[in-house]
User: What shape does this take?
Amino acid sequence: MWYFDSPHVIFGEEALSYLAELKGRRAFVITDRTIVRLGLAQLVIDQLTAAGLAYTLFDEVEPEPSLQMIQHCAGILEQHHPDWIIGLGGGSCLDAAKAAWLLYENPGIDPASVNPFDQYTLRDKAKLIAIPTTSGTGSEATWYAVLTDTVEQRKIGIGTRGLLPDYAIIDPALVMSLPPATTADTGLDALTQSIESYQSTWRNDFSDALCLHAVRLIFTYLPRVYAAGTDREAREHMHNAAAIGGIGFGNSQATLAHCMGHALGVLFHIPHGRAVALFLPYTIEFTVNGGGSRYADIAQALSLPTDNEATGAANLVAAIRDLERQLRQPLTLRELGIDRPAFEQALPELVARAETDTQIATSLRVPDSGDLRRLFEYAFDGKGIDF
Ligand code: NAD
Assistant: This one.
């Protein structure tokens, strides 16, 4: 027996106006100062006001949200007693909203102890609405949140099926202001998780369909939104693609590029999407060398030449690298600006962190420490994976 989970999705132009139909007392909007400064929080507040709801605005989320900030936010939630919690922003704000909601419903719980096998109280006090303003993480459609413990310098993944938002509002008007670099980083995050979730050991017929279509949309529309951020049609498809990939990923799992990217991101402070996407070509090569992968399916979906799995994978890797070049993304750790001594000093820690990442378990080919060390070394110089 297995499950397929998805939030109720409201998408397309004017999707935000769904908020004006909410019934309830008070909404609590969790966002960051950039979203407020851009006027996006006001768009949400206008709809809440039209619905006759009181609201509280919390705008203290920082990128890669910290455990400490979440605890602070949960304390404020407790004072206001909302019956709706709204995460508004990139993955950082959506994850912050999920985690603060969990603490609000389960006071005193240790977020680091949250796991998919235990039951938690959710929806006794409030429901959750996720409104993404980046087209990337798919957090609006997943039941995990990623926090950073700033004291111990580590990422904490919290996951339990109940954390899936009740509603995901996918309105393209909210991504028109995304700068090119964030468009690229977040769009490549969506691509990486869609490709990885198609190869994960937890993949299934439902996630497969979503991941493949997300990959097609991203290859078509990501170059367009990067070249012209005001291309509304492309923004809309790209925003949908991130959510579609998110539902696929939420019902499967990401794999090795995420393990390596998480390790790199936390040690060198690299944006999540840029870090995971950098490793994607290398981990595809490593995985196909182990046999049993399905990259030819993806290559075929993109109309790339695919005589067999090896050529399909090689052509997919070439297409990803071409896309990354178009988006001016680094293809190696050296291009990312990391120098050799800093890399060598961090290497044991990079390996240790990648090896203990939860998503190693869903990787089709699981590397040992020696493989991981070589994968990082090859990615430093940009060498093709030959093992
Ligand atoms: P982000 O949320 O950290 O946002 C990056 C920057 O973009 C921020 O400064 C933000 O203010 C700004 N921004 C957001 N929307 C904007 C807009 N419309 N216009 C202009 N600026 C805007 O970046 P992200 O990549 O969306 O999220 C990354 C976080 O998500 C990481 O913490 C990562 O671990 C997490 N994540 C979670 C999941 C999940 O399933 N829960 C999946 C992948 C990643």
User: Anything to note?
Assistant: Residues 32, 34-35, 38, 63-64, 89-93, 95, 133-134, 136-139, 142, 144-146, 174-175, 177-178, 182, 186, 189, 272-273 surround nicotinamide-adenine-dinucleotide (CB under 6 Å). The chain has a mean pLDDT of 96. The beta strands are 8-11, 26-30, 54-58, 84-89, 127-132, 144-149, 154-159, 167-170. Residues 205-227 form the longest helix (23 residues).
